[in-house]
Amino acid sequence: MGLREVKRERTRRLIADKAFELFSDHGFGRTTVEQIAAAAEVGPSTLYRYFPTKEALVLEFVDFCLADAVSWFREQPAMELPDGLQAVVERVLEQLETNPDRIRAVFELAEQSGSVSAHLNELIWRFRTDLADELVRRLPGDPRRAEFVAALSAGIAMNIIETVVRVWVDDPTPTDAKVLARQAMRLLRTGHIPLPGQPNLPTA
Known about the structure:
Order of helices and strands: HHHHHHHHH
CATH topology of the largest domain: Tetracycline Repressor, domain 2
DNA-binding region: 32-51
Number of helices: 9
Protein name: TetR/AcrR family transcriptional regulator
Domain HTH tetR-type: 9-69
CATH architecture of the largest domain: Orthogonal Bundle
Distance between the termini: 52 Å
Keywords: DNA-binding, Transcription, Transcription regulation
GO molecular function: DNA-binding transcription factor activity; transcription cis-regulatory region binding
Number of domains: 2
């Protein structure tokens, strides 16, 4: 990364951090773009170049974590897809765990603001779509069947991430998100989670 890119990333991070401070102190709705720009010591036009909306400021970290995992998966050589999906799930969670306060704040703001919640759902849907596209590229056989299987697989991966993050955010005790994810995947593998059309659950 060159000097210009480093400076841009530093500015981007500063704007996002200052925005979160203001959102936490004054609330999402009461914080203006002008206030965020002033706190970050940049002009409003500069802020908009980095973040076109206030919602993008809230969700910048989540967006990065999801996009990074898909980009990483695209760069990997051929692998067993269950292993690849597990790696994608764990990569997202590893990134999210580096900033638990930011993630908790995102969930709080999403509960307070319909627009933040809607944009969060858009990010989640984009992740599912991008992951499914990469799975289609890697799945053999009939393309239509591959699309169907890929959509189901990507949806399950995202549901694991969402459920684990929700438990992790709500639980005040330290919890390893990756451990929770592996528990979820083990329950799926052993048939201990009721699914539509599934035979009777194992008793052990």
